[in-house]
Design a protein that fits this description.
The strands form three sheets. The chain has a five-stranded antiparallel β-sheet with strand order 7-6-5-4-8, covered by helices on one side. By secondary structure, it is of the alpha+beta class. β5 and β6 form a beta hairpin. The chain has three domains: about 100 residues, Arc Repressor Mutant, subunit A; about 80 residues, SH3 type barrels, CATH 2.30.30; about 80 residues, Alpha-Beta Plaits, CATH 3.30.70. The model has no long low-confidence stretch (mean pLDDT about 90). About 35% of the residues lie in helices and about 25% in strands. α1 packs across α3 and α1 crosses α5.
């Protein structure tokens, strides 16, 4: 299946989802405004072919309400609203479609550089599907030399534009997390592994901010005081799925998150600068204050 054809299916899903209910005539009106159309309408037969392909690819059921003027709609919208992977795939493909439709603006569209971790993503996925152990050559950020070892791949996680592999280190018999952009080589072996039923990726990261899983760090209810203007950012993009807003005033808001305050979470708190204050727990407030003091001391030395 060509990428161009997939782009058409994604466009149809996005159009139906936004419209909620829409006739084929209205769909074609929107379709003719895109570069994908090449000035040609979607014939009814082609539309039904796309409709079937969308159901197979995304698990979305598209029905026609004849009692409402033959308007089409997605019956199981919850698939896109509740399924994180499906939603992410559609959003990513939709963004790709938008960029393809506006190639003439390439000099005015600025993108971020993404590390090359995706080079080995396909190999990792294949190993996961076949339940095969991977042999990887890896060079950590704090290591002088690379090392080669075997890993049973359990899951992958995307965080801050980097892909990470979560798997059982065969030599250590311990779950480890590896940044794919630090992988120098990755190959499937003939050795098989059994995916443990007790391992659930979502539960594994439930109390994590990002990619650091440290059970030695206590689970805490972290209380934050956030300046009113910065609070808008936290509402639109919560720090964690457990985030709750306790109080809202014209000057500030109070939020809580329930997680393990590991290094990456503390870095995120510091990123918010003077707009955010840690109120509880006290040990975390003291640690953040200490880091701020050290940062200030660095600027006093010159």
């Amino acid at each position: 299946m060509s990428q161009n054809q997939i782009n058409k299916y994604v466009w149809l899903v996005e159009t139906l989802y936004r419209a909620k209910k829409i006739t084929l005539k209205e769909i074609n009106r929107k379709w003719l405004n895109t570069d994908l159309s090449e000035g040609l309408e979607i014939p009814r037969r082609t539309f039904h072919s796309w409709k079937n392909a969308v159901e197979e690819m995304f698990g979305l059921v598209i029905l026609c309400d004849k009692s409402d003027g033959d308007r089409y709609y997605i019956e199981n919208r919850e698939v896109l609203e509740d399924d994180g992977l499906q939603r992410w795939l559609l959003n990513t493909m939709s963004a790709s479609n938008t960029l393809l439709e506006n190639k003439s603006l390439s000099g005015r569209i600025l993108l971020e550089n993404i590390p090359s971790g995706q080079d080995f993503l396909a190999t990792v996925m294949e190993a996961m599907k076949k339940s095969k152990i991977l042999e990887i050559t890896y060079k950590g950020y704090w290591r002088e030399h690379e090392s080669t070892f075997r890993v049973a791949p359990y899951c992958v996680k995307l965080f801050r534009q980097r892909w990470y592999l979560v798997g059982n280190s065969v030599n250590e018999d311990k779950i480890r997390i590896y940044a794919l952009d630090r992988v120098m080589e990755a190959n499937l072996t003939d050795a098989a592994f059994k995916y443990p039923k007790q391992f659930d990726p979502e539960s594994y990261f439930k109390h994590c901010f990002g990619i650091i899983h440290d059970e030695n760090c206590p689970l805490e209810t972290v209380k934050l005081k956030v300046r009113a203007d910065q609070a808008n950012y936290l509402r639109s993009l919560p720090l964690h799925h457990s985030q709750k807003e306790l109080e809202r005033t014209n000057e500030y808001s109070l939020f809580t998150v329930e997680l393990r305050p590991t290094f990456d979470f503390i870095q995120e708190l510091l990123w918010n600068g003077e707009a955010l204050e840690v109120l509880e727990p006290l040990w975390l407030r003291d640690e953040v204050a200490q880091k701020i003091q050290w940062m200030g001391d660095n600027y006093k030395t010159r």
